[in-house]
Amino acid sequence: MAAGLIDGAALAAETLERIAATVHAAVEAGARPPCIATVLVGGDPASHTYVRMKVRRAERAGLATRRIDLPASTTTERLVTVIRSLSADPEVDGILLQHPVPAQVDERAAFEAIAVDKDVDGVTLSSYARMAEGAAGFSSATPGGILRLLDRYDVDVRGMEAVVVGQGPILGRPLSALLLARGATVTSCHLLTRDLRSHVERAELLVAAAGRAGLIPGEWVRPGAVVIDAGYSDGGKGDVDFEGASERARLITPVPGGVGPMTIATLLDQTVAAWRASTSIS
Description:
Blueprint: E1 4-5, H1 8-28, E2 35-41, H2 45-60, E3 64-70, H3 76-88, E4 94-97, H4 107-112, H5 125-133, H6 141-152, E5 161-165, H7 172-181, E6 185-189, H8 196-200, E7 205-208, E8 226-229, H9 242-246, E9 251-252, H10 259-279
Parallel strand pairs: 1-9, 2-3, 2-4, 5-6, 5-7, 7-8, 8-9
Helix pairs in contact: 1-10, 5-7, 6-7, 6-10
């Protein structure tokens, strides 16, 4: 029996429609719109594409945007100064530093310059600690989007054997923390994990986030498992063999159209939440 499809594009569209309605009503009543600032360092074409997409989606939903593009030669000190200025600006509600930054920049120092109440991408250590404790705050956008998808499809992770393949600071590690906080039993794997197959075969919930196309063959997937493929490689391929996994899984995300749309929707929804908190809009 074919797996049910987890439609991230549909949930993202609903989320953006709700955001647009909220912002429109507030602006009509005289409020300023929420504002997200994007910071991009260097000329990486993929990064420019992602930022353009995020800005376009934000503006369609009625948000104001502020885009800061810095040259590839930018120093850590210069980037930190720019981000601290945005953090201090009362007209800016959310800050997104596009990852990755050039090698000479201390990315962690740049992330830590983001005020925690404007960390709508959930990249600061303070946000990570809150995710690990299950406390209030902003989650990392992609992991937060994955949790929203699981909620929409009534996947209760409490007590589930969850395997996360990928330990990146933007996706794998924060997602593992979020799943632990929700009561899942989490195994965190990566490309150096010995006998990866044995871990994957145990997973009731499998999240693939290694960025290696076809890393996980369909026959490794446990029958009845929920498969979230958050990997993406050139050519639009995910980490999981979709066709093979679909014959065994209960639910599965497509690539594209699964996790990706929810990343932007979650980012903008958290920006609206930050705006509400700073302006006391109900």
